Amino acid sequence: MFRTAIKTTLKSLRPSLNVERASIRRASSLTKGHFASAKQLLFGSSILALTASAGYYTSQNYTDKVSCEAQSEAGRYMQESQKLEKRKKYEVLLPSEITSTSMSQRMGNYVKKLQYDIVSTLAAIDGKDFTISQYQRPGGGEGAVCVLQDGNVFEKAGVNISVMSNKLPKAAVKQMREKPMELQGDGPYPFFVASISLVLHPHNPMIPTVHMNYRYFEIQDEDGNPQAWWFGGGSDLTPCYLFEEDIVHFHSTMKEACRNHDPTFYPEFKKWCDRYFYLPHRSEARGVGGIFFDDLDTHHPEQIFKFIRECGDAFLPSYIPILLKRKEQPFTPKQKEWQQIRRGRYVEFNLVHDRGTKFGLRGPGPQIENILMSLPLTARWEYCHTPEVGSEEEKLLEVIKNPKNWVPLN
Q: Which UniProt keywords are listed (predicted)?
């Protein structure tokens, strides 16, 4: 009887074991250099998981299992990231004064530290340095623009921060929030903003483009007291080719950051992302989404600030494992052309629909090069381009025309 039970259990596990073996082969063939021991780690964790919780893998669907593996992958990255050499030149990005009390100062310090972490990590992976441009704004405040072009991994990568105060015209105020504000007077209004924004456009079409932005706004009265305040931001993924495990990994990491603060955040902000990053003239999403939120002032500011920090800190674990996994993957000229066409869609959204671009262009003393930093170095528009039936390109179009839930919402 015991022998029969063992045979029955092994038979039920066979599909799961086949998936595990495929995952091991895929991981070991794609993670070169940075994850030399990924095969052993994945094999060991897979066997442990199968022996300790076989019932989980046979009772849960594929998405749940991939989500579990995605979290393990983020943990492996965190171990490997400690080995990356961060050059001293990027320490100029760090805040000079870390002691602060006001929310504006604390958010300003946070975006500087996050910019340092991201830029130094990306430069260590790419092997080429970012160009750093730091500036002071005449009306008050500062900023730092970090751009890498024609690198070894990135065709163009930009990571910007802005910490500034000025007076804001009414036209710019209208672009700042999705819901209207009740403000005294006709403006211009004293305001403060601390924000970080990045867009990464890799060379390899197998690596998705990624966008991330987090910001804090205050609209002040003449005495400098806030009339209104709110947080906004999010992170979203724009692939040219679909690798489900990559997308599940990205969404799983974002979901975990949200779930630690409010169980309603991920389902609400995931749907918001699908609505916002949408091209109505194409009837398609810009990519496979992530999270997006604006006008967030419904919780205590300390709670939201903690949430923002966790989302910002989750960026590297959400994206770097994908980057390291795909950066050596071969591609064809035809696949590169498809990437250029998809980047054309990215340009269309940023120039026609993105509220952040409109706000930047209408704000005081616009820094045009910094505002348009998010655009790719190259793009392509073909007249009436249609992918081949059944192709990987057509599969992408099907997904972006019909957004799906990559991980369970709840």
A: Oxidoreductase, Porphyrin biosynthesis
